Amino acid sequence: MTFEELKPKVTEITSNSVISREEKLLKICELLSDSIDYYNWVGFYFANHETKTLHLGPYVGALTDHTVIPFGKGICGQVAVSNSNFVVPDVAAQDNYIACSFTVKSEIVVPLFVNGENIGQIDIDSHVINPFNEDDERFLEFVNSEIAKLY
Ligand code: SME
């Protein structure tokens, strides 16, 4: 499925008036992971700005021990500080990286802004090297902007 085809499906989920925000986030994880073959782990982390930690939210994919990540640590922690997208074509080339599984070869993290504040992020791991391009970034920015409307 193309990103353009996926966009209305994302909006369908976010505008569902029956299910909770948590359920919407999980459904978005499922939609993305089911629709894009190189999206092998899809999840959300949310920031606690007082403790400067990220906390795992809804996700699909392999179980992870990394339920709490300090700001600055790993790809996710760096995005909590930089407020910028982080595309990692090859995780083996990263020094500040938290490995979840040896099957993960690449990663993309896109911050989630609500009223200009970085409240969390969508994190996607892939089992292939260098699968992500600017279309992924624009699409995931769209996904997060739709989610931001729920806050
Ligand atoms: N690899 C991430 C940790 C989270 S897992 O991908 C689920 C990182 O370096 O921040």
TrEMBL record:
It holds the Pfam family GAF_2. It comes from the Bacteria. GO terms for cellular component: cytosol. Residues 25-143 form the GAF domain. InterPro entries: GAF, GAF-like_dom_sf, Phosphatase_reg/MetRdx. GO terms for molecular function: L-methionine-(R)-S-oxide reductase activity. Belongs to the free Met sulfoxide reductase family. PANTHER family: FREE METHIONINE-R-SULFOXIDE REDUCTASE (PTHR21021:SF15), GAF/PUTATIVE CYTOSKELETAL PROTEIN (PTHR21021). This is GAF domain-containing protein.
